[in-house]
Amino acid sequence: MKVVLNVNATPRILTYIPLYLRLKKIADEVVLLFPPGTDVSEVISLGVGENDILFLESDRLSEIKGLDVFVSAESTMSSIPNNCVAIGLIHSLPLKGELNFDYSTVLRLKPNILLNFDYLILPIRQEDEFWCPHRYERHVRGVVPDRMKRSSRLGILQGGYPKIDFLKNQFAQRKSCGKYIIYSPTNANISGGEVLKYGELIISVLLNEFPDKTVVFRPYPGNLIPFISSFKENSRFIIDNSETGLKYQKDAFLTVTDNSSSSITFSFSSLIPSIFVELEKSSLINGAGGEVDSVHKLGFGFHVRSISGFTAALKELKSQKDDWPSIINDFGAKRLANFQCASEAIADFIVDSKRNENPKLLWVSSEPSKIEYNAEKIQEILCKGKAPNRWQADFMKKIKEYHCKGEIL
Asked: Do 137 and 233 fall within a single domain?
């Protein structure tokens, strides 16, 4: 069996390496696929064989020979080869509801999943009320033309989050955990990204509150952050543009973010709390009301909505009055599927995916509706009167191209 793991963005490297290491033991051939120009030196240092690395543009995936299983992030929009089993992997942890998240809208928000994948793997446990086919089907029934479908149904599995497994082992080897504070904001160009407006202030607070620590700023890949020049003379400020961020995370005392799931991953792997500073989109993580200056305690750290709340959370963290390792471990076991053993579970599923026999799969029908919808009606179903997101826009582009070829529904 030949398995290709599509690492189409550097933040996903640590998701796929543990799958690679596990699959190397049970599959005939495993390939890590990267965009041309990616620096893979750190990947090789983490145990990936040079001969198992392939560089290929996303529009050339059909050129891969002898492929049995293709694994990629659920956000992938490029066409995936049809001559294999295709598995979509949710690429980040959800922040909304403190990981108590209903994934049933994912097919409406990212309808490309229906075109590209046979299976979809979720990272977190789903409540029984969320785990039924009709919750997914009601959002997308009839939106995929019969001749565009990959298959008549999509198998969904609560598989877990492999990155946590790998990082847990890395953190277990570290000799100290108090040298650095990692500030890793999310993409500045998306909703919820606050680094351009508040990042300089947050870094200044951290430098002032922790005179014995070094602040490591890890910007989202591709973001240009003008204010970093303000700290270039400060010996306690470091910019980390590495592929994985492991060098400094291994000795980190704390991570701070606006709403990047990388900080949750850090907490579940290291059992060290994170602080989420959302000064504008206050409802994203916990939806809590109350005073703006309040500190909301999460199962993996703190959520604050003001700078005064931020400093209060820092002081509470310094007090060390909570048993954070136990709090985070118990919360992770409650909310994440296959907590700390997802790599094995997902790799085993990948190898067996051609047999369709896993009893834990939820099967969602993608059969077309009996009603014939035009492109405008499909967009109305998916977007519900709002402007389409980038996945919906890409999906609608493909639908319209399909119609232009005379394949009218």
From this structure: no
